[in-house]
Amino acid sequence: MTDSRDDRSSRPRRSGPSGSSDRPRRGGNDRGSQPRRSSDRDGEKRLWTRDGKPARGDRDAREPEVNRDPFGTRSVRPRHDDPDLPDSVTPEHLERGARNELKTLTKENQEFVARHLAMAAQLIEEDPELAHRHATSAARRGGRIGIVRESLAITAYATGDFGLALRELRTYRRITGRDDQLPLMVDSERGLGRPDRALELGRSVTRSSLPVPVQVELAIAMSGARLDQGDAEAALLELEIPQLDPTTAYSYSPALFAAYATVLEDLGREEEAATWWRRADVAAEALDPAPDTIEIVEEEEVESSE
């Protein structure tokens, strides 16, 4: 969870799958010639007169209803018991940029939400279900904050609830206007068994408008959707991007190299796949000491040292 969007160290993390939240508006009721009561979707009783007009005191049913929940806050309102928060967990455990997004909340709610988001980030790998409960608690008090809905989406994805993840990501996108979680939206469509919609969604944004790490994540997600369709050749083409450079390691390089190796294996190109698996390992080892960009040895030196 971060303000810069390129450093995601404090937001819940996720991995790819292996394989509008706007509420409906009420419409007019079918009116006949006799007075009668009818129920709308909220269970409200309406009395209609013989000429088909609402009785006195009732608003015109033809008037569009104002959306009083534009950010889908009610979607996180069902009964929920807040998980315990250790006394040792404080708002300072949440990255500063994420804490800054909570400043529109009251002081009490800021502390409550920040502590639950910090717990969600800590638990996402070892216990995604519990992480999701913490994110849900945060969303119940900070549901109109982008970072909160983003965390709820990521933890839902980690538990395999791709439908909820997609809904929350749409809400996050609507609140913030950001496309940085587009790869996770594509993967959520994949998780729901809809590769065609995943590809359509991935093509809905100009790729060059995204930060480079997000471009790479999107290429991997799109490649996975192509594999879901059984088109390994197209999946390989999705990954052949400028960032597929074996001489330099970036934070996204190990995942990109591994994805490329996976598709090569599916195509039966075993020797090439083995080479890219080695490159993925080398990149991961090079990045282990620090997250910054690190120049790695030339391919000939790597292979001669193995």
TrEMBL record:
Region listing for Disordered, in residue ranges: 1-101
Q: Which InterPro entries match?
A: TPR-like_helical_dom_sf
Q: Where is the composition biased (Basic and acidic residues)?
A: 1-10, 37-68, 90-101
This chain's protein is named Tetratricopeptide repeat protein
What's the source species for this entry? Antiquaquibacter oligotrophicus
